[in-house]
Amino acid sequence: MAQITADSINITVDGELAEAQVGETVLTVCRRMGKDIPTLCHHEGVEPYAACRVCLVEVTAGARQELVPSCQYPVSDGLVIQTDSQAVRDARRVVLELLLARCPKSDVVVDLARRYGVTETPYPTDDPDETCILCGLCVRVCEDVLGVGAIGFADRGIDREVGVPFDEASEVCIGCGACVAVCPTGHVCSIDDGLVRRMETWKTELELEECEVCGRPFATVKQLDHIRGLLPEHVPLNRICPVCRRSQAVQRLSEACSIVVDNLGATAGQDGIENLKSL
Amino acid sequence: MGVDLEPVGRLCESHVSNRTSLVMLLQETQDKYGYLPREVLKQITREIDVPLARLYGLATFYRSFTLTPRGKHELCVCTGTACHVRGAPTVLQHLQRRLGVSPGETTEDGLFTLVTVNCLGACALGPLLVVDGKYHGKITVGEADELLSSLAEAAQQNPQ
Ligand code: SF4
Ligand code: FES
Ligand code: FES
Fold it and tell me: What residues are paired with A197 via a beta bridge?
């Protein structure tokens, strides 16, 4: 439950009164209440963009009633929200028909569409193998979160696509894989092959670095250099894989524990000796 | 195919000091080079710390930008509604056939680039053909042919 502060406001969600904070989005509040609102282009770590429109809800503010993308719409005092009205379901169905026409083979789109009873679409399909819904999550995470900006939108209208400039290997991509992680449809993919990470979708190959401890390739050289650049100079960056880092941490912890245990023992021993002496 | 990158620095400097938009910078760059050469875009990203992906996005979004060199002369056929009903498709088809290019393309000899536009706001003059910025109203296939021939002739007499 949200903490009640000076910035608290009251809204109504599906007839239920709820507390929200100024600055929160409708989606955040509704999800906190356990409402089931589908999203595709939304990611908590990235600024909202409201591209996919599957998160539409109905809001009533004063006399105005409209369908809005909940991922981007800010709450305001007295807002009345419907997350599952007939209008909402109808609107989501249209959106899903459009998405299904674009990506007829995307499991994510197909499954979500089916949940809304949409199994076919009246709209024409351009490329039956298309799996990108142009939600821009990959572009936003790359530029806004990582500050790299290796990929972007190109062209417009029906030719709009996401990719690397000039459709050639990127000079700036660090191969971190954030785009792979955020892509809702699995369109972005990468493959690690020996000492090479291939960012297949972006036509870019990067050299992998081996863990200083176990020798397993675990991150790209550019990725580690990028992190190095972000860290303050006095903070060392160990080029160690997560597995080894964890076991090193465990090792350090158990060493620390045994010192504590030893010290305790010693203290107990000391006390024991003192006790003996006092007898 | 070396492109002179010299002017890029100056263009970027004025962009930064005058705080103009990226679109304006690209417009000025295209005015300078006639198109947006790849190396020039890459140089811009080095100068002003803007991702190449963003420049490429803008350059491919707006129709007035082009990433390939333009022909010596630009033939622009208006295919807006008014020009369309007044016969623009016939003129366009004829030019396409005669030049052997589709809209957006440049002839192999680098002489002509054919483009289309949707309404130039001079509908009463339709069908409209704009040659290197000069408007030719109520154009016929015959007149278009003559214009083309005289340009081609001039180019032959004065090759660069
Ligand atoms: S590749 Fe994935 S993340 Fe990027 S725009 Fe397409 S669907 Fe969205
Ligand atoms: S999740 Fe809200 S518009 Fe995509
Ligand atoms: S339609 Fe051609 S100028 Fe308007």
Answer: A192, A206
Q: Is the CB of A179 under 6 A from ligand 2?
A: no
Q: Is the peptide bond before B127 cis (omega within 30 degrees of 0)?
A: yes
Whether B54 contacts chain A with CB within 8 A: yes
Using CA positions, which residue lies closest to atom 7 of ligand 1? A132
What ipTM, to 2 d.p.? 0.81
Of the residues A230, A253, A271, the one at which a domain ends: A230
Q: Read out DSSP for A123-163? A: SPPS-TT-------HHHHIIIIISS----EEES-GGG-EEE
Q: Give A-chain residues touching B53 at CB under 8 angstroms.
A: 139, 143, 149-152, 164-165
pLDDT per position as a tens digit, A196-210: 999 999 999 999 999
**A166·B38 Cβ contact <8 A:** yes
Q: Provide the b/e sequence for A63-95 (b: ≥16 CB within 10 Å).
A: eeeebbbbbbbebeeebebbbeeeebeebbebb
Strands of A16-21's sheet, edge to edge? A16-21, A8-13, A80-82, A56-61, A64-69
Best B35, B56, B62, B67 residue to mutate vs chain A (most A CBs within 10 Å): B56
Element (H, E) at B22: helix B22-33
**Residue A187 CB–ligand 1 contact under 6 Å:** yes
Which pLDDT band holds residue A16 (cuts at 50, 70, 90)? very high
Question: Taking chain A, what is the end-to-end CA distance rounded to the nearest angstrom?
Answer: 60
Domain membership of residue A185 as a residue range? 137-230
Instruction: Give the count of beta carbons closer than 10 Å to the beta carbon of residue B72.
Output: 18
Encoded amino acid at B8, one letter: V
CB-based contact B130:B76 (threshold 8 Å): yes
Whether A162 contacts chain B with CB within 8 A:
no
pLDDT in tens, A217-274: 999 999 999 999 999 999 988 899 999 999 999 999 988 888 877 777 666 666 655 5
- Cα–Cα distance between A162 and A187 in angstroms, integer? 10
- Strand-pairing partners, residue A191, are A198
Q: Domains, chain B, ranges and CATH?
A: 6-61 (no CATH), 73-157 (3.40.30.10)
Look up the CATH number of the domain holding residue A78.
3.10.20.740
The number of distinct structural domains making up chain A is: 3
Q: What is the residue-averaged pLDDT of chain A?
A: 92
Cα–Cα distance, B92 to B139 (Å, whole number): 11
